[in-house]
Design a protein that fits this description.
InterPro entries: Mpv17_PMP22. It is found in: Membrane. Belongs to the peroxisomal membrane protein PXMP2/4 family. It is built from six helices and no strands. By secondary structure, the protein is mainly alpha-helical. The protein has one domain. Helix 2 packs across helix 3, helix 3 crosses helix 6 and helix 5 packs antiparallel against helix 6. It is globular and about 45 Å long.
Length: 185
């Protein structure tokens, strides 16, 4: 296991952006697989393309934006003092979280070939739930993240937590606008 960790850190040093993109691809893929296999009704057949959509979102959007966003936060707000950590969490959850939600639903909308009207309906139906659901997970997770996790490992830590959170996101992102509420976190 230590060899794998050393190899990951070597890749992170050599290719930080690409490594974080692949880390996010893994987190989003695993989260969707778990959502489809263990959370949603078992009478639905497994949707491979749904997993591809979620994984590609992780690779193309989450990994790259996470690399730059958390790098920016760390450069503008260095350190781990409680006020710095709290400021980073507040910025993440009040600014980045809604942007992320809009991008997540927008990406799924686009790759599924849906209309702008479908996108606005989805935002109206589910963005508030996604943002508020995020608070339950990410406020405590990011408090730990910004206080104790080295900046280079932030996205790995986030993706570890993200696997569980992606079960919620996968359900929310793939439910029809008029379906029932998502499962409790």
């Amino acid at each position: 296991m230590s060899g794998l960790w050393a190899r990951y850190n070597k890749l992170l040093d050599a290719q930080p952006l690409l490594t974080k993109c692949f880390t996010s691809l893994t987190g989003f893929t695993v989260g969707d697989i778990l959502a489809q296999k263990f959370v949603e009704p078992s009478d639905k057949p497994y949707d491979v393309m749904r997993t591809v959509r979620l994984g590609s979102f992780g690779f193309l959007f989450h990994g790259s934006t996470g690399h730059y966003f958390y790098g920016l936060l760390d450069s503008k707000l260095p350190g781990t003092k409680p006020v710095t950590v709290a400021t980073k969490v507040i910025i993440d959850q009040t600014i980045w979280n809604p942007i992320f939600g809009c991008a997540f639903f927008g990406y799924l909308n686009a790759v599924e070939g849906k209309s702008w009207n479908d996108y606005t309906k989805k935002l109206n139906a589910d963005l508030k739930t996604a943002v508020m659901g995020s608070w339950a997970v990410w406020v405590p997770a990011h408090t730990i993240n910004f206080a104790f996790v080295p900046p280079a490992q932030r996205l790995l830590y986030i993706n570890t937590i993200q696997i569980g959170y992606n079960i919620f996101l996968s359900f929310l992102g793939n439910k029809a606008v008029d379906e029932e509420k998502p499962p409790e976190l």
